[in-house]
Specification:
alpha/beta; Nucleotidyltransferase, domain 5; 18% strand; binds 5'-O-[(R)-(carboxyoxy)(hydroxy)phosphoryl]adenosine; binds zinc ion
């Protein structure tokens, strides 16, 4: 069985997965509470927390699987992309286990794994497809020819979609991570109350830019030269701002997914990443893809935010003989 380790950002996770891609055990320790008062992930705090949690998380995963380390025949670890200090904790743990157990080491690209969450959850072949990762760190469209051949069709030139949710939440006086709080605040709000930008939506390019929308929200709250005062909790203004912001992001994401399907000629779309947990996005995307006759897979909510189960993509590498030496390093930057 394959033991997968994930520590790219602020979740420490482990999963035990058999060759039929059945999840035998999984464990995730989130650090949201540690970073909340800073309004974002503090890298140094994240890596220290990973050090404390990594072994208990692996133990918990094995306990849930009713397995022991003796059942592990390979260890996989997400070594790119992410925060350098966070990645190093997972990689070091994985290498130590490989040496101790004398089993092969497999590398996982965290972003590709977000798409593969759809494969694990559905149990059916999803390739070839357009892969779409909408997370706190990435908003990327991929041409996924096979599990081992991903090429980038387009990404964000500034903020990621999740980052826009997080920054806008902070403007609106909502806690970190902003996505789920904006979703809740938007209930009952009018998505047409404010017209926020849908950047590049009507252009050919498959790129995203979300920094302008955050600025637009800022000026909707307080005109230039005046101080930002967050709308009162529970107010109609807060609900309208949240709903209008969310709708602008959703429109942009759906429009670009459609354009990528057109560009590739594929009829399957696979979506993952934290923002794909958003109910409004899921419902509207489902309706639109149904209309277009596109086969749509959205990762289940618990596999949208960071987890180790999606690292099951390592089975594909293992089967293809793609194992790593103990020289394997972390690659924090976006790998293509
Ligand atoms: O995939 P993820 O856990 O971490 C990265 O790899 O980045 O994504 C985290 C991001 C955060 O920005 C968070 O605000 C966003 O996903 N998110 C959501 C929702 N749940 C999480 N955004 C919108 N609506 C949600 N329900
Ligand atoms: Zn992620």
């Amino acid at each position: 069985m394959l033991l997968v380790i994930e520590s790219t950002c602020d979740e420490t996770a482990a999963a035990l997965i058999d060759e039929q891609l059945q999840v035998r055990g999984s464990s995730v320790a989130t650090q949201d509470a540690l970073h909340q008062r800073f309004g974002g992930v503090v890298p140094e705090i994240a890596s220290r927390a990973h050090v404390e949690r990594i072994l208990p998380v692996i133990d918990e995963c094995l306990r849930r699987a009713k397995a022991t380390l003796r059942d592990v025949t390979a260890v996989a670890v997400a070594n790119t992309p992410g925060l350098a200090g966070s990645l190093l904790v997972g990689l070091s743990a994985a290498k130590a286990l490989c040496v101790a157990l004398d089993v092969p080491l497999v590398a996982v690209n965290h972003i590709h794994a977000h798409v593969y969450a759809c494969r694990v959850a559905s149990g059916v072949d999803i390739f070839p497809c357009v892969g779409f990762v909408v997370s706190g760190g990435h908003t990327t469209l991929f041409n996924c020819r096979s599990p081992l051949e991903f090429t980038v069709l387009g990404g964000t030139i500034d903020d990621a979609a999740g980052e826009a949710f997080d920054k806008t939440a902070s403007l609106l006086g909502l806690p970190y991570p902003g996505g789920p709080y904006i979703e809740k605040a938007a209930v009952g709000g009018d998505p047409k109350a404010f017209r926020f930008p849908r950047t590049f939506l009507n252009e050919e390019r498959l790129e995203f830019s979300f920094s302008g929308i955050k600025t637009a929200v800022r000026y909707a709250i307080a005109p230039q030269g005046t101080e930002v005062v967050a709308p009162p909790p529970g107010s109609k203004l807060l609900a309208d701002l949240a709903a209008s912001f969310q709708q602008a992001v959703v429109d942009t994401l759906i429009g670009k997914a459609e354009a990528a399907l057109k560009r590739t000629g594929y009829s399957t779309l696979c979506v993952g990443g934290g923002v794909a947990a958003n109910g409004s996005f899921r419902t509207q995307l489902e309706a639109r893809m149904k209309k277009l006759g596109v086969r749509l897979f959205i990762a289940p909510r618990e596999l949208c935010t960071d987890n180790a189960v999606m690292g099951a993509i390592a089975w594909e590498r293992l089967r293809a003989g793609l194992v790593e030496s103990l020289e394997l390093d972390v690659v924090p930057g976006l790998e293509r």
